[in-house]
Amino acid sequence: MKLESPYSREEVKELGHESPERGLLCSKCGARIPQFRDLSDSDHIRIRQLISNNKKILAMLELRAATGCSLGWAKLWVIHEDQKATVPCPYCGEPLRTPVAKQCRFCGRDWHDQQ
Predict the structure, then answer these.
(1) How far apart are CA 6 and CA 90, in angstroms?
(2) How far apart are alpha carbons 59 and 17 in whole angstroms?
(3) Same-domain pairing of 66 and 109
(4) Which end of the chain, N or C, is surrounded by fewer C-beta atoms within 10 Å?
(5) Measuring CA to CA, which residue among 70, 93, 97 is closest to residue 13?
(6) Per-residue pLDDT tens for 70-115?
(7) Do the domain assignments include residue 1?
(8) The domain containing residue 45 runs over which residues?
(9) pLDDT value of residue 10
(10) Is 57 helix (H, G, I), strand (E, B) or coil?
(11) What are phi and psi of 61, to 5 degrees?
(12) Inside any domain, residue 61
């Protein structure tokens, strides 16, 4: 089986709290980010919306309900999904920490007050 292959609900339940051995490899932390075969497009969109609204705990709970995964897997997935949602700094182009950040950690520019 491929390392990127998604997990079925049955596999997720079988593995319980074990760390995922399959999934996308995070280049920053080296963790395998599980992918879920049973995560529907509508569930994915709803969970992404919760992440965008900074409701990560609710996003984790929704992911658990949709896939049957453990809290650890849900946290891993949500954190990495949130990182994918970041936008570049309008001044230096480096990724901001969150989609709603108003200051760049790289160049230090701040745009809290547009004046």
Answers:
(1) 35
(2) 18
(3) no
(4) C
(5) 70
(6) 999 999 999 998 777 667 888 998 888 777 788 998 999 998 776 5
(7) no
(8) 9-84
(9) 95
(10) helix
(11) -65, -40
(12) yes
